[in-house]
Structure formats: structure tokens, C-alpha cells
Amino acid sequence: MGKYNIDNPPIYVTINTLMATLNLTEITRPGKEDRAKLLVNKVFQKSKQENNFMTTKGLFYADKLYIDGIERKYSTALVKNIVSLKGTRSVLELEGKFAGKRTKTKVKLNELEKTKEFGGQSTGVDGKKKVNLGIVFEKEFVERLEECVSNKKCGGKYSKQASKLLQTVSKAKGSAVKKIVHAGGGNQKRPIVLSGKVPLIEPKQAVKHGEKLTDITLVHANGSETYLSLKYGPSVTFINAGVAKDHFIQDEMKEGLVKSESGKAILDAFGIDNSKFCKVFNDYGKIGGKKPVDPHQETISFNSTLLKPLLQTAIGANYWMIHALENGKVFMWEVSKQRNTQYAKISGDATIFYGGIQGRGKRIDVQFSNQYFDFQMNIRNKQSGLYPSHIMLDYTSKPATGKEEL
Predict the structure, then answer these.
(1) Domain boundaries, the chain
(2) Inter-CA distances, 336 with 172, 227, 252, 333, 399, Å
(3) For residues 258 and 280, is the Cβ–Cβ distance under 8 A?
């Protein structure tokens, strides 16, 4: 089974309008200790640095630094002290004021945006952020398709792939493509719901997901439509759904058990122990929580009655997947109703990582495979909080999907 590479996360098609944030690893890992020095120099305005930091809540001016609640004064040894925190759960905070505010407050390290000087992405002309490569691919691909169905020459990047795609889907529909509708960025929400005792991604029929997943809709001369879902990067996602409000309720988890019927059904579908799931988040950051969850890695077998319907609606049907890789190759395969049923069959064991791959995180990871995909499911907080906010199901595709290079 292919392992999820935590150092090479998926690149999603949708653009992330928020810059990445800092964490202790980012400023303490080997070769990056200069970031810890920069942090200290900025807080104490040394080496001609200014104490301004962009945070998730706006511009912030810091004048004090705290480690685990204890104020640390400036010294030449402070940088070494911070670097020595590598691998721990120590909390690093800055105290100061937000721009335009009079009251002092504290911000945590993971609330500071990873700007260019801390190793973040550089910005483009006039301060505009670089465009996500998935968005670039989508823009260029739709331009080629539009050229191919107009009187313009179908040339330039992806022209070969666009021409081949149009031929393929026209043959499948028995009707030529007449019009291109770009729906990029308009993907509709697909929440997790409970149907009886089975968790599903809404809508409940897999074939109705095509029109929700479409980035480009091809309208044929006979009035029928072909839906294209464009993805970019080494691995992509089937599920990205919120769970805090209806499924994994914080107050319930603090008491040690998920009590909502939908939350319990999701855990059961992935073979996750309820109390151990809550314990991962409840113990995070505590003295005992600095060690890996024990045992944090377990091998289990799935309840296919619960998991298969969830996977069928997560994968969806009635669309074509168009997957571009960073090396310039573009693959295409049809996700039909029949293939959807095949894709959702899971065989063999799965591996659960309580506390993430290393056993120290505020997350649960589950890895499993079939002949078509390697899957990685995770439940975690994506909003700098503690308790789960989202469930995500990432995947890498295999040749058995029927994919062919365009």
C-alpha cells in the first residue's frame, strides 16, 4: 500500500486565499534555525528588524516573547533555547498590540503567517500572491477547449490534450461538443449526512455528484452534458467536509465520547475507537501527551456495509476526471456508475494512526487501498483549533482506474 507523504502534501485545484502559518517545526528543524533568530530579532527589534508580524487576525506589533507561559527576555542564548524545543509541544507566544488597538494581547506562533522572510511563498507584482498552479492549469485548459470549439486555432499548451478529450467525450455521447461552460470555483458543497445508520456524502445517489463536481461542463449538440472535474498535483481529494457542528461536537468529546449518531457512524465506518479518538484531542498538549499515543498505530478491518456507501458518494459518478501532474502529463478517466461501484470496494486491512503518523498530533489518519486507489483519510482541525473541524479523504490513482494519458 502506498504511504501518504507528510512532507509532500497534496496540491488541490481550489486556490487557498490564506497564507500558510508558522509552527515550531518550521523554525527549529535543521537548516532553518535562522527563522528562530529572525523571530527573536523582530520581537526585540534587533539587527535593524521591525517588530511587525502579519497574523491570521491582522497586523500585529510584538514586544514580548513567552515559552510555555513564561516571559523570556532577550539574550544571545534565546535563539538556541527556542531551537532546542524541536520535537516538543512547547507553546511559543508573542505579546503586543494589533494595529489600531490599545489593548495588549497574546498571539500563538501558529497564528503568524508564513511570509516570505520565514520561507513562505514569494509574492508577485504589486504584492499579488502567486496563483495556485491548479488554477493556472484550469485556466489554460478551458482556454484550449474554447479555442477548439471556435474558429480560433487550437494551439498552445494543452492543445493536444484538449483536442483528444473532445474527440473522446463526443464519441461517448454520440454527439459533438457545441459549447464550453467554465464553472471553475463553483463546486457545490457536499456535506456528510446520516441516512438511517449509514454516513453518506450528500446527494445520496452517486450519479448526482457529477454536476456538483464539475469545473468545466461540455454541452453537446444533442443537449446532453459532460462534466469534467479538474485536479492538479500528486494526490487529490474526494472528501473535504466540515464535522464540528453536527458530527464531532466539542463538548461531547471533552467528556470522552462522541455521542452524535452521525459522528459515531463515521468512526465506525473507518474502524476508529470512539474513546481513543476523543483521548487524542483531549490529551494533546498535556504533559502526558508529549509522548506518542500508545499504541498509536493499529491494523484493522473495515465494516464494508458502512464504508462502501460512504466511498461511493465520496467518489461520485457521471463525470470525467482530468488529472494533471507537475511533470506536464494529463490523465483522463471516466467515473461512471459502474466504475463507481468498483472503485468503492475495499479489500485487505487498513492502518489507523491515532495522533497522526508520528502519534503526537491532534489528528487521526487512516490508510487503506484497493486496486484503483491508495487512500488517506484524516480527521483534524484546519482552523488552528484543537478539536476536529474537517474530515478529508485524499487519494492517489492507479492504472486500474482505466486512466489514459491525453
Answers:
(1) 24-127, 133-405
(2) 12, 11, 40, 9, 16
(3) no
Helix 304-315, helix 261-269: angle, nearest 10: 90
Tell me: pLDDT of 15 over 50: no
**Ramachandran region, residue 139 (left: φ > 0; alpha: ψ -120 to 50; beta: rest):** alpha
State whether residue 1 is helix, strand or coil: coil
Name the 3-class secondary structure at 154.
coil
SS3 of residue 36 by DSSP: helix
Provide CB contacts within 8 A for 251, sequence distance 6+.
Answer: none
Amino acid, single-letter form, for residue 233 = G
Q: Which of 266, 259, 210 is nearest to 243 (CA)?
A: 266
Reference 180, options 128, 139, 143; nearest CA is 143
Q: Say how many Å lie between the first and final Cα of the chain, rounded.
A: 27
pLDDT tens digit string along 81-136? 999 998 888 899 999 988 667 889 999 999 888 877 787 754 444 444 555 777 88
219 pLDDT higher than 80: yes
